[in-house]
Amino acid sequence: MLLRNFVEKLRARDWFTVGVELLIVIVGIFIGLQANEWAVARRERSEERLYIERLLSDSDSNVASLQWLVVVLKRRADAIHALDMALRDAGPLPSEKAMNDALCRWFVAPADRIQRGTYTELLSAGRLGLIRNGTLRTLLAREDSAHAESGRSDLLIPMVQRLAAPLEAHRTWTIVGDERSRRDIACRFDVPGMRADPAMSSTLAQLYRDQTSHLSYRRRELEAVVATRKELLRALGRPSEQ
What we know:
By secondary structure, the protein is mainly α. It has one domain. It is 69% helix and 5% strand. It is built from 8 helices and 2 strands; from the N terminus they run ααααααββαα. The chain has a two-stranded antiparallel ribbon.
């Protein structure tokens, strides 16, 4: 009797209407999920563009900073080479300012002011996946490696300081400036004594190698930043400078 009642109730059902209602529910759920995915995708694309804009701002600053560093390091290396040639009576003596910059402060690396905050934030927050451009992600990683490589070059400073010790015998430190101008520390050189010192050629060679090594690191770093910047501009649909 119970089974017969159950079968009769099933037969009395309007299964077409039930099917239509079920289809409406399924379609509604699908549309809801799809709308949510569209909203998430739209938000992520907005965040991606914001990050790329910030990365471009960092790159603009880094290009300017590294270009300045390359000029400074090249100038120091040229001054050391010119002094070496002058001590051999094969060229003019560099200016006092050039010698001061190259031989009094060679171990003080110019502040690079490299901006890495945006990329570090992307890595630490696990948001690097927001950047859909695989080429850009690769270039950012290469740039990060170039920055790290330049930073590690400072580890050589203690060794070069020991090799440059003979220079100290021919260098005198003084305070320059007065109350009306900014006081600073400068050094003067005993050029005749340097010319007569047989160790000076090797000392200058070590300092020249140190400066050109740093210059090489910074040039590679600049190349990496420039390549990243071009891809950032392309990702934003902006023309890149030739």
